[in-house]
Design a protein that fits this description.
By secondary structure, the protein is an alpha+beta fold. Helix content is 30%, strand content 27%. A hairpin with a 3-residue loop joins strand 11 and strand 12.
Length: 355
């Protein structure tokens, strides 16, 4: 597999643009195993697959079975929340803030919502420019500015929500099936009573499952930056601190794997009500055929009732390499399930060949 880079047209001809996503690499590797041919359409980021003469395409883990309406609904986080709320599902209480809103409105939103708050970009990804645990008005205003800075678009906005306390999970699914459930744990190290936190980070970053952004690894390395140092300081720690053996130290407030977190497969432990809620959620969004749900629960192993879970977000282009290569737990063959969605006849043909 050599053609793993998108290209663009220039006066000199085709030029290299950027690497395809790791999830897409896994799809193409699985496709080749199953006799499916593929090509990247030159000058685009569209990949076309051919199975027994039938052609289907996808773009950044978005299959053609997902419509423009589904993409719009997911890219506008407030629209997503409203659709889920209309379906009777639990979502955080919150509001969308735009650059046009005046200070009186900002104060009204801040005073109305219960603290602490979460502020994030209205169309953000990778857990970037998110601020959690906001309690003061000053921090609230700074967090809104940070969220606005995620995008230079005039329509860029921020979502302000009441913070829910629980464990965070990513649920990968189609409109008919749960593919996998992962618990997402913020970047962390476990003390051994000998090494400093900085040395523990270096050691963890050497794990084979971790790489840099754009690599073929499912987990990213932990980056030491100002936010990490500040969070350690809040815990009365620094990079030179030595932590007692067996004690876990969290390095970030957000749980994204893209921020150095760990993805633990939890599919077999979740209560059946979780899967029912997740399927109800994806079917509440018109035109969405494949998604990743950001789900929080106080105890995902028990029946989910109002007040003990919320759906934070729905992603129309989920990275699913973490389901095939979790930090701990079973591989869920998400790349193959993605191909089954694109070519429904593929699964039945494979089952027939096995018989």
């Amino acid at each position: 597999m050599l053609k793993l880079i998108y290209n663009y047209f220039s006066p000199h001809g085709l030029e290299k643009s950027k690497n395809i996503s790791n999830s897409s690499r896994l799809v193409l590797k699985e496709a080749e195993k199953l006799g499916i041919t593929w090509k990247i359409i030159p000058g685009t980021e569209i990949i076309t697959l051919n199975y027994h003469g039938k052609e289907e395409s996808y773009f950044h883990q978005i299959p053609t079975s997902t419509t423009a309406l589904g993409i719009y609904a997911c890219n506008n986080k407030k629209t997503t929340i409203n659709l889920l709320r209309q379906a009777g599902l639990c979502v955080p209480r919150g509001y969308r803030i735009s650059k046009e809103h005046n200070e009186d409105y900002l104060k009204e939103v801040f005073n109305f919502l219960a603290k602490p708050l979460v502020i994030k970009p209205g169309g953000g990804t990778w857990g970037e420019n998110i601020t959690v645990n906001v309690t003061s008005y000053k921090d609230y205003l700074n967090a809104i500015k940070l969220a606005f800075n995620y995008s230079s678009r005039k329509t860029a906005g921020a979502i302000v929500e009441e913070m829910f306390f629980g464990e965070e999970y990513r649920i990968l699914l189609t409109r008919k099936k749960i593919i996998g459930v992962l618990q997402r744990i913020p970047a962390n190290v476990i003390g051994d009573g000998i090494l400093t936190i900085k040395e523990l980070i270096k050691l963890k970053n050497q794990e084979d499952i971790r790489g840099s952004k754009g690599s073929d690894k499912s987990h990213l390395r932990i980056i030491i930056d100002i936010k990490l140092r500040e969070y350690l300081k809040e815990q009365n720690l620094d990079l030179d601190s030595v932590v007692e053996k067996g004690k876990r130290i969290y390095l970030r407030k957000v749980s994204n794997v893209s921020q150095g977190g760990d993805a633990i497969d939890f599919t077999d432990q979740v209560h059946p009500s979780v899967k029912k809620i997740a399927l109800q959620a994806i079917n509440a969004i018109p035109g969405l055929s494949f998604a990743g749900l950001d789900f929080m629960s106080k105890d995902i192993t028990k029946e989910q009732t109002k007040g003990n879970y919320v759906i934070i977000e729905v992603n129309d282009s989920p990275g699913f390499d973490i389901h095939d290569f979790p930090y701990q737990g079973k591989k869920r063959y998400a790349a193959r399930e993605f191909l089954f969605l694109i070519f429904p006849e593929l699964k039945s043909n494979l089952e027939r060949d096995i018989k």
